[in-house]
Amino acid sequence: MRISFIGLGHLNSAILAGLLATEVPRDRLNATTHSTESAAARSREFGIDVAATHNDPEANRTAVDGADIVVLGTKPKDIVTTAQDIAPALAPTTTVVSVAAGITLEALTAALPVDQPVVRTMPNVALTVGKGVVGITPAAGVTQSQIDQVNDVFSASGTVFQVPEDQLNALAAVAGSGPGYVFRFVNALAAAGTELGLDATVATELARLTVVGAGSMLDDADADPTALEDSIATEGGTTEAALNSLDANGFNQMIVDALRANIARSEELGA
Q: Of 6, 11, 36, 104, which one's alpha carbon is 20 to 30 angstroms from that of 96?
């Protein structure tokens, strides 16, 4: 299977790194970036052919020629234009995979040849550590064999969930952006520790290791976050007091509002 990566931003780089960790032959992979400097740097980093579109307008079309899967990882505002650019070079059976937030299957299929297999996805950056979460939605007409190939690309470094397209923005709001929320929480926890008198470096390390440890406790398909919370928040204890304060300040609603803002932005990007 030949795979071409158009753009090597955070997500495409994470997907590529996951594949390379499974020892996929490097000569079956290629990529493009914009500048010659980034192409050279990425080629050294990943050990694959990386071309620059800055000095070769044909680079994307050359890269996808003969590919079984093309992973579009340019900025959302550029995805449709990029799809139109590579369209003449695609084989009819090449599966085009988008990792762009908000860009619908309708927009993608309209930019590509009729009946071109298209799969819309939403991965998160935890693919880089083999713990990613990926939502996928195939367009009508994509075969099970093609879906399985896409699953293979992502399952190398994460867990894949196939969902209807009208649920993909919600999945992206929870999981696609989820690592960002966790990082923000770690920063907030560390800042609060500093405000309470801890050394800033110590507070940051305490917050980081606490989240790493709690995450490890959840790293089991049978783990129940509610049961884990209850096991720590004993009645009348300090954890319960802190959680009650979060509740009183509308913590859960803040999360809902944040996810709604995320989805609204995805819909704006796809408009």
A: 36
Q: In tens digits, what is the pLDDT along the chain, a chain of 271 residues? A: 999 999 999 889 989 988 888 888 999 999 999 999 999 999 999 999 999 999 999 999 999 999 999 999 998 889 999 999 999 999 999 999 999 888 999 999 999 999 999 999 999 989 888 899 999 999 999 999 999 999 999 998 899 999 999 999 999 999 999 999 999 999 999 999 999 999 999 999 999 999 999 999 999 989 999 999 999 999 999 999 999 999 999 999 999 999 999 999 988 887 6
> Taking a C-beta distance cutoff of 8 angstroms, is the pair 126, 161 a contact?
no
Amino acid at the residue 119: V
Q: What angle do CA 33, 37, 42 make, to 5 degrees?
A: 55
Which residue from 32, 5, 25 is spatially nearest to 16, judged by alpha carbons? 5
Q: Which fold has domain 3-169?
A: Rossmann fold (3.40.50)
Give the CATH fold of the 178-270 domain.
ProC C-terminal domain-like fold (1.10.3730)
Name the residue among 23, 19, 51 with its Cα closest to residue 37: 51
* Residues 112, 116, 117, 122, Cα dihedral to 10°: 0
**Three-state helix/strand/coil letters over 31-64:** EEECCHHHHHHHHHHHCCEEEECCCCCCHHHHHH
Q: Which two tokens stand for residue 78?
A: 């550029």
